[in-house]
Amino acid sequence: MAKTAQPVSASQWFLGALSLPRKWRVGPGPIIAAIVLTVIVLSAIFAPYYVPFDPMHMESTKRLQPPGGEYILGTDPFGRDMFSRVVTGGRISLLIGIGAAVISVFFGLLIGLVAGFFRMADAIIMRIMDSLMSIPAILLAIALVSLSGASVGSVIIAITIPEIPRVVRLVRSVVLSAREEPYVEAATALGSSMPKILTKHLMPNTMAPLIVQGTYICASAILIEAILSFLGAGVSTETPTWGNIMAEGRDYFQINPGLIFWPGLMLSLCILSINLIGDTARDLLDPRLKKREA
Amino acid sequence: MKFKSRNFEGAETVLDIKDLSVNLPNQETVAPILDRISLNIRAGETACLVGESGSGKSVTSLAVMGLLPKGALEVTGGKITLEDRELLGLSHNELRHMRARRMAMIFQEPMTALNPVMRVGDQIDEVLQIHADMSASERKARVLDIMEQVHLPDVKRIYGSYPHQLSGGQRQRIMIAMALVLQPKLLIADEPTTALDVTTQAQILRLIAELQEKQGTAVLFITHDMGVVSEIADTVHVMKEGQIVEQAPVEKLLREPREDYTQKLLKAVPSLIPRKVRPPKSDDQVLQVQGMKKIYGGGGIFVKKEGTLAAQDVSFSIARGRTLGIVGESGSGKSTVARCVMRLIDPTEGEVRVDGNEIARLSRRQLRPYRRFIQIVFQDPFRSLNPRWKVGESLIEGPLNYGISRAEAMKQAGDLMELVGLPRDVLDRYPHQFSGGQRQRIAIARAVAMKPDVLVADEAVSALDVSIQAQVLDLLGDIQDKLGVAILFITHDLRVAAQICDDIVVMQNGLIVEYNSASEVLANPQHEYTRALTEAAPGREWDFANFCELKKTA
Q: What is the pLDDT of residues B488-537, one digit of tens each?
């Protein structure tokens, strides 16, 4: 069989990506962000297979080793390998970010559809959402975690609950405007049942804004997880997460700044990339921006 | 009929457009948006620019005002001369200076053209602040004066009102006052009466003519309505696909149109002569409405709020195969009636019987078996089909709900496409690939797919160009002949109603003021409101399709 595909160099591929169809042409920023995020996600997923040390294993003779040599990024005050901990920490941080985004989008969509479509339910649901939004998110999260004990699940729930009202509001507003569209009224006249109108006509309208909102929630969940861990209200301290690593490093970071710098860098890069991708998704999906282009 | 067509020999030329071309930037291969158009307007003259949507009327006006969207459209050739100044090539600032003082523009929708958070008096005053060197008290006097001139009542109160507190007609008067306060030489009016009711339209047209007389302004009037043209134009320029295909004084154009396209446009204008009386085919009343009333709002949990009465004492009935028109101006309650009949909203009181079954009080679930007997076609063809669905999916949505198999429904959908004059392969495409008229055909097909007994057409042809309008009306008539469906036709346009309706209900402020056969309502109106409506219909003495005066019907 003749070889038809030419090997493509990385730079060629990169340039190719920049010359996507005009609609999808996004410039270098989001592409770099996507690459960075992919690297972070893959490194986290496959961390157990390549890290040089067990991230939980303490070596009391090798405390606070400087970077270089046996330990690429040095060791923490308990003699654990920083590199292994930082990449492994991403697993929990990303899991919490994605988990919080998926769960809050799912429930937010469900509640928002109901609130947007049924006027009676709307009055009650939105008052509940208003009261949820009136409580500071961090405070609510700390309270929930301390009530239910520190675990990945409870942290995800604690982060999800304050995010749900925002999603509900978004979905509700989209549904409220979409349900006035003549094609939705026509569907009613055609005898389509309520669930069918909700899922087939109204829900697709919410997808684009939800994708965008989902990325923002993911970023903010990762950040809130870090804040909670830093305050000692997050996932239990044995599990490495970026927040936990920074919290433990805070007493010794003058001796080894890497204790805070490396997890902090991962966290910042990760959130920056997600937000950048979210912004790009918004620009591509938001019909108002499309209109301005036309 | 008396036409304007005055003599302008010797009058100075105010606007002179020569070989103006407008293109999409960097796209030489695409047909130009404006293709070397030339026209001139003399002082005191009203030049009408007519044509269907997309013909380039508005682009012409924007090019003159220097308001073409940057980056989207650009002038590629020609000249625009206002009095003695060449407008193309003027800087942004110079152009801004020319606007308001030398040329001004009024738009179709005065609500969006006015600033909603600023008092209207201040908005007129702003024009003076920017362009005239006057003291505050002089400006105030001038603003009140121009407001008097546009015949606004109680100008002191209106000076301090916000746009939402005024009616559509009053808002348009404010726009005209703003445009004319500095006595520009040229007034461009882009469909200024299209969004207004006929009676208001007549007043605004009179006002523009009066001010034009007083100030000697040249007016470039853009419209798609041949009736309006016959009332106000001195000269008419017919546009088609970016070209001016015919230019003539109004009377000559209406009597002896030279171009095929002009003839086609004129022939498509629906006549005010009611259709031939059809004997009723059956006594089977498929839709009966009795004593219907609708109050919007009201209720409230803690405080009893007063609702808005939208319709009251509405009673009518339609026999199988007949067409009943509901005619009225905006706010008359005609759409409320349509939506109550469809049970898209719940009537507050009264009965709605479809094929003898009372449906006004049924719950959503109980109603479903009866839904298929009554179907609706909406006004806006761009919003009445789900943009994410292929046309075929939209067409089979209804039949699937009533247990017809997918394959069977698709087969029927294909047949329906033929019925409405579209090819079968339309089913695999998305709505955005079709024009407004085609989409309206699809929407009609979707309604007909349910084999309804009653078809409600809520302003179903109002958003379409006249030639397309005529085709869609023909289609509705055709479908009625073939399927024997009764049509409830809601419209604000007496001409359209005359073409299709057997009987007409005239509504005003939620009440039926007249209900009679179409020929009686149009030829012999009993109620003064109906008379006002017929008298306000522009060009009512002219038979456009036959290029001559309307013969007085015996």
A: 999 988 888 988 999 999 999 889 999 999 888 888 889 999 998 888 88
What is the pLDDT, as a whole number, of residue B300? 64
Answer whether A191 sits within 8 Å of B342, measured CB to CB. Answer: no
What are the angstrom distances between the C-alpha of A179 and each of A115, A169, A203, B324?
A: 12, 15, 10, 29
Whether ipTM exceeds 0.85 = no
Residues 6+ apart with CB under 8 A from B201: B193, B228, B536, B538
Interface test with A, best of B367, B376, B384, B386 (most A CBs within 10 A): B386
The CA R_g of chain B, rounded to the nearest whole Å, is 25
A191–B372 C-beta distance less than 8 A: yes
The count of other CB atoms within 10 Å of the CB of residue A100 is 27
Minimal CA separation from A65 to chain B, in Å: 59
Least Cα distance to B358 among B282, B312, B291, B452 occurs for B291
Beta pairing partners, B311: B294
Q: Residue B244: beta bridge partners?
A: B239
Whether B443 and A186 have beta carbons less than 8 Å apart is answered as yes
Structural element, H or E, at residue A250: none
Residue type, B463: A
pLDDT in tens, B101-134: 889 999 888 778 899 999 999 999 999 998 888 8
Closest CA to B442 of B466, B460, B467: B460
> β-strands B285-296, B308-319: how paired?
antiparallel
Q: Which of A183, A188, A189 has the CB atom closest to B385's CB atom?
A: A183
**A106 to chain B, closest Cα gap in Å:** 22
Residues of A in contact with B352 (CB under 8 A): none
Measure the CA–CA gap between B265 and A203, rounded to whole angstroms.
Answer: 43
> Could you give the percent of chain A with pLDDT greater than 70?
88
Question: Under an 8 Å CB criterion, which residues of A touch B?
Answer: 181-183, 185-194, 196, 201, 204, 294
Delineate the domains of chain A, giving CATH numbers in brackets. Answer: 31-41+76-286 (1.10.3720.10)
Q: Which residues does B216 contact at the CB level (< 8 Å), separation at least 6?
A: B43, B44
Alpha carbon distances (Å) from B230 to B176, B209, B469, B542: 21, 13, 20, 8
Task: Please give the DSSP secondary-structure letter assigned to residue A24.
Answer: G
